[in-house]
Structures are given as structure tokens and as C-alpha cells.
């Protein structure tokens, strides 16, 4: 899951490849957002498989092009399903929802992290908590902005070999060497449950066609643009959610190509001192 | 959870307080409506936490401003989550979905009732059944109107110390001493799953800013007005559900202030004879 | 559950009867589509009960007018709930989601099949797999068209006594003697999760008012017409799902009557050689 592969693709090429391949995406995700997540994947052009059942989740993950493990509602059965997924594939995304103060999911997140996800996606509070540098947010809310988690994200990436994607007003994606900032989106995305969770699923879909850094960046840009377009014709969070699915389906590679100029790429600048603060 | 507290607030002041506080609402609720319930809370301006997992549900409830226990799909794991919630807080709402004929949830409802919810919310059949005065409805439907459950609601309130809210064409809310009737809403709310269940969550959100009677009344009025406005621009139950979320988000305290004149407050009039009919 | 009963009804008469009866429909279905399925049933005019809990699922099924067992996410608890349902009623629909390659649900499907569903509803890959004539699809996708499963459907119907409904561009419904083809619908129905799953629930609703063949045909026609009308005013999969619920609610018996001319009825033509290929 090295981010500097020959399969590096800019977002518009990744979307083109996704539409051609229609990747199968196996999701172990929380009970609140299964429906919305499946609809996001379908709208995007991927094929969702939403099994969290031991005995099946691993089978799906083994044939899937990408997988998601989201810890929003980690029942014991689902935890076993998640364990199967991470044993069956390396092309998986970890979404450590509300990790930190809550004991069950926090222990599970650290256990699953041993299996090295291709991508870790969370808000700033979750990334800070996972890197051992913060106490976690208030439930599913982030109390910190993405750049507050910049150092933690870089070091988490270096320590795990995973790409780390921090969601917020400006999304921050890093493999520990490079940082890509993805501005855009709309605040209405935070007023619909599953906005962040479905972004993890979209990243898993892009893992079926490109490397982890490209996948995380492409997914973030796709969600940002679809959210902006949806917000422009929505009258509130209900109509926004509906329009967001419409816009995901309507999004064309050329729309992404025009928006790629907004991506800001910089080198990750880390000192050994800061690195030492991170404990997994 | 006395209804006559200094924190008594009229609906418009309660909504203003809710928007300022953005209360964290911990929900143990049924699998059918988790998504809609979370979206209702987000639209309203609250922060949903939807964990029903033992080991986490109680932790969330301990820090939440209000909690909901809805018995629509009471799995053994979820029942343990519910038990944690009611042990961790007194600011919780019980929604005894389809209680009566169904053995698992009926036993669980009576067990949880021992922990004295701040608010009990149900339709007439559920309240009659919980008060021992009826056989329950046909599944999740109510076969009785709210006023048919008036005496049962009063006595259930007196026996438990809970505020009892009976949903129907005219919602009826009582603490056993006072009755507040909340007219309005729209029949389309009964054509969308989660209409009643999300009302319980909204009551839990208002428990974070005011007393139980004020919370139940404010929530009922908020849902009634949002439903009326949504119905005015909907072309069926699908577009109604979408518009309902939009209208919840758009609702302003002054909208509620104008509608408060429709509330009808009367004294609860109970005779000892009727009281004797109620067995918990 | 013989398809040639005196209660045979054309779709428009079945819809009229459904609206009058408001059948209670007990659903054991997958976690991804519970909300959408309940909303489809409510929009149609039926009353959903969505309990998959052992101790309650069988109670509901015993009083329900029709039941659904959908194997999309078959947890151990839900499997026990499903067993209760099929023991409590003969008016049930089996939806063997993604049966074939996945061991848990495949074993469960064959076990439940012993209890003889009134209707088996699936896509071509699922029907082929259930009839022992195919390896199953890629997850929930069908890799075959309905007519590819024609022989398998006929023989599955003859072997089980069930009506078999194969969903696809042209739905194919058979009791082993007669084949009814239902053209129509819209491709957007495949871009929303629960499109097929909710069709199984609608068939269960129609089982409350007519025989199995009529129920499967009426449900297929209702979904086809509602999908066409929804697609005509949708701008993508999100607005399509919303409009689909609106159109289900708005659908009148006379709309179906006008569309009944598109149904194509033929005799099932089977040779003993083909029949011998089917093993259950």
C-alpha cells in the first residue's frame, strides 16, 4: 500500500477507472449509515456488499476490490466480521468512529490497526486519539480542526505505513511524506448522518483502481464537489442528502479535472521531537 | 424530573436553548429508524450518539444531555445497552414500541420502567398497555386515539413520576397534574417510519435544556409544525420525509412562539375509581 | 399456496383489496434496507412490522397477513427469528440475497426452503443458484438476465410448490405451469439499495389479499409503474428513491388496470431432461 506506485492516478482518471471497473466494496459499517453508505457507493458506480457476518465478511473481502471497517457500532459479532476482513485483504480502510473515550471501539481500533489498513480516515479528534496524542472528541463530533491533527496524522502514517485522511473544512491527506489538502465541500455534509462514514466507503471503492494516497484524495475531492453542487440546490439537510446522491451519480471525470487545481500538495515536515510524541 | 421546576421553558425558549447548547443525545433505538432519528437530531441542532453496545451505551448516557430507549427491535445485546443507559442517567425517554402482546419487549419495558424515565412516549395503545389498561395495538399501530388513553396516561404519570406523552392526531402530554394538548402535525407523519420514534429522540434532546413536561411539549410542537410545513410542499411520503428534515432545520424560535397559542392546558381530573384500574 | 385459487386477482383488484385491508407485513430483512422497506410498505398502504427477534418474530408472523424472510444480513439471532416466521405461517416470501458462494446464507436458504415459501423472489443468479443450476452472482449483483433463469425458475417452482419470481429488466413470474412476464421499471431501481428487497416485502403484502402468483405479479407491476413514474421526475438515484415512495402512495387501481395489457402470459414449457438438472 505504498503511496508512490505506478498506479498513482489523479482524481479524474481514478473516477474514470472506477466507473469502468464498478469495484465491489465490502463494508463492515455501523448500523446508522448502512443504507446511506450503500446508496453512496451505488450512486458513485461501485457495487456495495454490506456483510458484517463472521463466515461471510471475510469471503466478501477476499473477492472485493476494496473494503471498509467502520467502528461506529461495534457489536461482538461485527467485531469478528471486521477481524475476518482485515485478515482477508490489505486493501481496506479503517474508520475509527468516536475512538478515544469509548473502551470497546478503542481497544478494537488498536487491535485492527495491527493489520495495517491502506487508509485510516477520521476527523481530527479521532486521528489525534488514535495516534495517542488526544483524548478523543465528544462522541462522534470532532472538537479539533484537521490541521490540529497534522503532526499526529503524519506520524500515524509513518508508524503504520497507512495513508491517513483527516476530514474537516479542508481535508488533509498524508502518507507521511507528502500532504495533500482538499478544500471544499459544504457544512450541510455535517448535518447528515453518514457524511463522513460514506467517505470512508468511497475511499475503499477507489482502492480498487488506484493506490492509497490517490484513492483518499480522489474520494475527498469527489465528496467535496458533490456536496457543493448538492448544497447549491438544497433547502436543508434532507434535500441535501438526496441531492448529494444525485450529484455523485452525475459527476463526470471532467468535473474532477477542472477541480484538481484546488488540491494543495506540500512535503510533510516532521521533526524527531514531534515524532516521539506519537505512541500507538 | 419534577415537571414544576424553575427550568420550565415555553417551546420557543426551549428551542433557542437547544440550538445554543447542541445537546448530545444518546439513543438506544430500533434498527429501522436509526438513520432517520440521527438525521432528525442533526437537523434540529442536536448531536446524536447512536450506540446500543454494552460497555459504551452507559458511557455515552453518562455524558449525554438526554437519552432515548426505544424498544422497537430489542435484541439481547441492545437490552443490555438499554439497562446501562437507565442506570447512568435520569434524563431519559422510554418509547415502549408495540408493547403489550409481544413478550420480550413487554417484559423489558416493565423492567426499565422501574428506573423511572423522565418521559414515557407512546401511542394510545402503548400507553394503555403499559398502564395495564389495554391489550396493546396491532403491532406498531395504535387502535385507540390519544384521549382514549387520557386516564391511563394520568395514572401512569402519577404512579411513575414520569411525564407521559401520548401521540396522535392531538398529542396529549401530562405529568399527572396538568394536561397539555398539542394539536397539529400531518397524517403523512404516520406514513413514514420513524415519525413517532424520532419524536422520542427530540424529547430527549429537549431534556438537555428544560424540565420533562416542557421538553415533551416543545418536542411535540416542533414536530407538529415541521410536519405541517413539510406536508404543504410534499407530493407524497418520500418527499415529505425529506422536507420534514429541511423544516426542522429551518424552524426558528419565533415560529414556535407564534404557534404556542394552540397549546391547550387543563388540570388533570382523576377520580380514585379510575386510578384503581391502573396496575403497573 | 396453490397459484390457481378462486382468490386469483388481477393487479388492479389486488391493489384495491390491499388498500382496503392494510395488511400487516412481518419482515425479517437485512439491516441495510429495513428503513426503505418499511417506508415502501407504508407508502403502498400496508402496515410493516420489522421484528427479527426470536420470541417475537414468530408472534408477529402468526398474526400478520404476509411475511418476508430476506437473507441479506443473516446474523445468528436473525436466523432464529426467520425460523420462527416460517414455522408460524405459510404466507411468506423468501428472498435468498446473494445465495450461492456465501456459506452462511446458502445453508440457511436451503434449510428455510424446506418450509415451502409461498413465493421465492430473487435475481437470476440467485434463482439459478438456489435451483442448483448456477454458482451465484458476484455478491448482490446478478450476472444473468431473468430468462437465463427461466428453466431453473420453472423447476424450482415445481420442486417446491412455490411461485418463483425472477427480477430483472423483464420480471419473470412462474408457478411451474404458467409464466407471466412483467416488463417495465427503470434502471434507477438498481441504483438504490433495497429496490429488489422491498419488492419482496410488497409481494408479502399482496399475499394478504390474493394467491401467490397474483401477489407476485401485482407487486412486480406496482414496482415497475412506480419506478417509471419516479424516474420521469428524478434527477438521479437520490431523488428517484424519494419519488418512488411518492409514486407508490399515489398509485391508483385504475393506473394498474391500464398497465395490465403489458403482462405476457405463456404456458411453462418444460422437458423432463431439463427438470432432471435441478437439484435442491
From TrEMBL, chains A, B, C:
Q: Does the keyword Secreted apply?
A: no
Question: Which one Pfam family would you cite for this protein?
Answer: HK
GO terms for MF: ATP binding; hydroxyethylthiazole kinase activity; magnesium ion binding
Keywords of this entry: ATP-binding, Kinase, Magnesium, Metal-binding, Nucleotide-binding, Thiamine biosynthesis, Transferase
Q: Which GO terms describe its biological process?
A: thiamine biosynthetic process; thiamine diphosphate biosynthetic process
Q: Which InterPro entries match?
A: Hyethyz_kinase, Ribokinase-like
Q: Which superkingdom heads the taxonomic lineage of this protein's source?
A: Bacteria
**Ligand binding (substrate):** 50, 194
What EC number(s) are associated with this protein in UniProt? Answer: 2.7.1.50
Query: Which pathway does the UniProt entry assign to this protein?
Result: Cofactor biosynthesis; thiamine diphosphate biosynthesis; 4-methyl-5-(2-phosphoethyl)-thiazole from 5-(2-hydroxyethyl)-4-methylthiazole: step 1/1
Cofactor(s) demanded: Mg(2+)
Give residues annotated as binding ATP. Answer: 121, 167
Q: Which reaction does it catalyse?
A: 5-(2-hydroxyethyl)-4-methylthiazole + ATP = 4-methyl-5-(2-phosphooxyethyl)-thiazole + ADP + H(+)
Can you tell me which family this protein belongs to?
Belongs to the Thz kinase family.
Functional description taken from the UniProt entry: Catalyzes the phosphorylation of the hydroxyl group of 4-methyl-5-beta-hydroxyethylthiazole (THZ).
Protein name per UniProt: Hydroxyethylthiazole kinase
Source organism of this protein record: Schumannella luteola
Q: List the gene name.
A: thiM
Amino acid at each position: 500500500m505504498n503511496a508512490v506506485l505506478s498506479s498513482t492516478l489523479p482524481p479524474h482518471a481514478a473516477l474514470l477507472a472506477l466507473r469502468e471497473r464498478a469495484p465491489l466494496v465490502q463494508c463492515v459499517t455501523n448500523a446508522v449509515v448502512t443504507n446511506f453508505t450503500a446508496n453512496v457507493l451505488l450512486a458513485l458506480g461501485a457495487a456495495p456488499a454490506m456483510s458484517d457476518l463472521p463466515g461471510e465478511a471475510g469471503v466478501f473481502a477476499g473477492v472485493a476490490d476494496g473494503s471498509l471497517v467502520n467502528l461506529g457500532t461495534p457489536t461482538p459479532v461485527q467485531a469478528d466480521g471486521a477481524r475476518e476482513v482485515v485478515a482477508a485483504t490489505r486493501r481496506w480502510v479503517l474508520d475509527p468512529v468516536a475512538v478515544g473515550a469509548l473502551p470497546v471501539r478503542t481497544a478494537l481500533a488498536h487491535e485492527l490497526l495491527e493489520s495495517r489498513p491502506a487508509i485510516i480516515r477520521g476527523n481530527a479528534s479521532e486521528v489525534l486519539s488514535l495516534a495517542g496524542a488526544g483524548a478523543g472528541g465528544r462522541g462522534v463530533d470532532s472538537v479539533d480542526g484537521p490541521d490540529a491533527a497534522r503532526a499526529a496524522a503524519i506520524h500515524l502514517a509513518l508508524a503504520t505505513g497507512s495513508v491517513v485522511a483527516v476530514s474537516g473544512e479542508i481535508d488533509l491527506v498524508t502518507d507521511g511524506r507528502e500532504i495533500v489538502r482538499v478544500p471544499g465541500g459544504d457544512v450541510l455534509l455535517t448535518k447528515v448522518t453518514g457524511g463522513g462514514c460514506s467517505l470512508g466507503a468511497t475511499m475503499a471503492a477507489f482502492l480498487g483502481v488506484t493506490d492509497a494516497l490517490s484513492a483518499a484524495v480522489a474520494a475527498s475531492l469527489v465528496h467535496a464537489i458533490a456536496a457543493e453542487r448538492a448544497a447549491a440546490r438544497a433547502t436543508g439537510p434532507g434535500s441535501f442528502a438526496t441531492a448529494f446522491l444525485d450529484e455523485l451519480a452525475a459527476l463526470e471525470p471532467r468535473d474532477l479535472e477542472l477541480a484538481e487545481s484546488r488540491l494543495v500538495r506540500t512535503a510533510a515536515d516532521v521533526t524527531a521531537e514531534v515524532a516521539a510524541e506519537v505512541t500507538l
